[in-house]
Amino acid sequence: MKKWITAVFALTAIVSLVALTPSTISTKSADPREDSLAADRAKYAKEVRAAIAGKEKTNAEEVFKNIKIFKGRPAEQVIGIMENGWSKALGVSCNHCHDVKDWSLDTKGDHAIARDMVAMVGKVNDDLIATMPSYATKERKPRIGCTTCHRGESHPGRPNGARPGGPPRN
Ligand code: HEC
Ligand code: HEC
Q1: The CATH number of 33-154 is which of 3.40.50.720, 1.10.760.10, 3.30.470.20, 1.10.468.10?
Q2: pLDDT digit string (tens) for 91-136?
Q3: How far apart are the C-alpha atoms of 76 and 120, rounded to whole Å?
Q4: Which span out of 25-39, 63-77, 143-157 was modeled with the highest average pLDDT?
Q5: Whether the Cβ atoms of residue 148 and residue 90 lie closer than 8 Å to each other
Q6: How far, in Å, from the CA of 67 to the mean position of ligand 1?
Q7: Is any atom of ligand 1 closer than 6 Å to the C-beta of 67?
Q8: Is-contact 58 31, C-beta < 8 A?
């Protein structure tokens, strides 16, 4: 009888311990690739944060060497956008766009594409959506961002090899 009660107590204790421990399962992403990518991005972001320690609030162009888009933004914000914005939106890690031995190099094709995509997003938001007659009187206008299209994929809109918005290949 005593043994039985002890067993029940032990079981209850284990169950509540498991319930109280932040579950690693529930925080895991639906996409299994995302977890290892997130770890990789965190490693690089930490490396960059360490390198710019003390200059987090300084303008990005004074801290980094090759800033065209983020002029006037605090340096730490750039790292945040890289880690939680662009990389996540595309489902990639930093090395997709960077030669990680020198962050200032823009020799990778995707680095240039990213800058062009930023310009496109700006045009859509500021020129096209801003002048939509149907939204003229509305205070809140829709905005697009990288995730609008990419949704965790570097090649959005190609299900089964289809061209974006076109017929399937072959
Ligand atoms: C989709 C492509 C892309 C991804 C992914 C990406 N970056 Fe960038 N990164 C860029 C572009 C483009 C710039 C230049 C921004 C500008 O012109 O202001 C940049 C700039 C930087 C800079 C400033 C370099 C300098 O010296 O001027 C650092 C540091 C950086 N990225 C770190 C990271 C880290 C860390 C990650 C991953 C967590 C990452 N990036 C992911 C495209 C990317
Ligand atoms: C209107 C939709 C749309 C938006 C918004 C958008 N993209 Fe793209 N992006 C695309 C399409 C389509 C491609 C081409 C994919 C392909 O080659 O299959 C692409 C390709 C890319 C590539 C090249 C990927 C590769 O591996 O070849 C990069 C880098 C990229 N986008 C970055 C960005 C970033 C950063 C943003 C936000 C600033 C952004 N995109 C916003 C539609 C979009």
Answers
A1: 1.10.468.10
A2: 999 999 999 999 999 999 999 999 999 999 999 999 999 999 999 9
A3: 24
A4: 63-77
A5: no
A6: 9
A7: yes
A8: no
